[in-house]
Design a protein that fits this description.
Number of strands: 0
Structural class: mainly alpha
Number of helices: 16
Largest sheet: none
Shape: globular
Radius of gyration: 29 Å
């Protein structure tokens, strides 16, 4: 908790993110628009978490303890990007940038690649693949032995996680249907099983990953390399599974919100149909029409159409009572 280190590239990235976001807010306000304080707070919290896991104890011991390296990877992939995504960076860019550039941003957001990558049903499936590549390929050794690869991995994790997080929390202009989000929730339950695989495999391995490096780093008198790897596998297993729960709640919340919006839209469409039917109904001379003719030919449109449609009311208890 008291260990600190210096990470120049990450500090530069954090400064660039904060400066760019602040410039965007200033541009939006200069145009007479408002920007929610909670969005700016979420963006700053994401930057703070990025600095904490790279300059703090996790960054200081990431190259000497595998379980610390594992926790850092998980926070950069699953924690920091969610906070940044709640800052709505794409919406801010669309409002702050010049019209032509903003149009390009929106076109890129609507492109097939980003739409597929940020799809709530696809993005979470990328997580176990990314984790497997990091821990069971030469990526682990290269990032531990070369600082440039280590920094590149950090930036890549935040970028990949941000694309996934935007697909989960939305970008301020959600276009998902209620059915699509319901399918996403179902896929998320399946994805819970896949996220556990990398952690289980790492926990149960009896030989080391990146054997040469960890054998050299772990010396007598400290935590053994194999025990460290088992702790790393347990952390990967637990945190990856635990982190899925907030993601699942986020998608369920979006599902409820989109379902409510769909209900409002359907009600408005039905009201428009009701008004059009009432406007187009033939006028009846009530003075000459026989008793009950007006009500039979021109239904009252004070209730939804499905409650007055005789074809749908056939066999309904109220209809049978009226017929009797």
């Amino acid at each position: 908790m008291t260990s600190w280190t210096w990470d120049g590239p990450t500090v530069a990235l954090a400064v660039a993110l904060a400066t760019g976001y602040g410039w965007g807010i200033a541009r939006v306000r200069s145009r007479g628009l408002r920007w929610a304080v909670r969005r700016a707070a979420a963006w700053l919290a994401g930057i703070a978490s990025l600095l904490l896991v790279t300059l703090g104890g996790l960054g200081a011991h990431a190259h000497t303890l595998l379980w610390v390296y594992t926790v850092q990877v998980l926070v950069l992939l699953l924690g920091t990007p969610v906070l940044l995504a709640y800052g709505r960076p794409l919406a801010l860019a669309a409002d702050a940038l010049p019209e032509r550039v903003a149009a390009r941003v929106l076109n890129a957001r609507a492109g097939l690649t980003l739409r597929l990558a940020s799809n709530p049903a696809v993005g979470p499936l990328v997580v176990p693949v990314v984790l497997a590549v990091i821990f069971f390929s030469p990526v682990l050794t290269v990032t531990l032995e070369h600082s440039w690869a280590y920094y590149l991995l950090q930036f890549a994790l935040v970028g990949i996680g941000l694309v996934i997080a935007i697909g989960l929390v939305g970008d301020g202009a959600e276009r998902d249907s209620s059915f699509a989000l319901a399918a996403t929730v179902a896929i998320a339950f399946i994805e819970l099983l896949f996220d556990a695989i990398p952690g289980i495999v790492l926990r149960l391995r009896t030989h080391l990953v990146a054997t040469a490096y960890w054998t050299r780093v772990h010396h007598s008198g400290r935590l053994s390399a194999l025990t460290d790897q088992q702790h790393a596998g347990a952390a990967l297993w637990f945190i990856a599974e635990f982190a899925d729960l907030p993601f699942l709640l986020i998608v369920i919340r979006r599902w409820i919100r989109v379902d409510q919006l769909d209900a409002v839209r359907i009600d408005r469409e039905l009201d428009a149909v009701r008004i059009d039917r009432a406007r187009d109904a033939p006028e009846i001379d009530r003075a000459t029409a026989p008793s009950g003719a007006a009500s039979a030919e021109v239904p009252e449109f004070t209730t939804p159409w499905w409650e007055t449609d005789p074809t749908r009311l056939r066999g309904h208890p109220i209809q049978r009572e009226q017929q009797d």
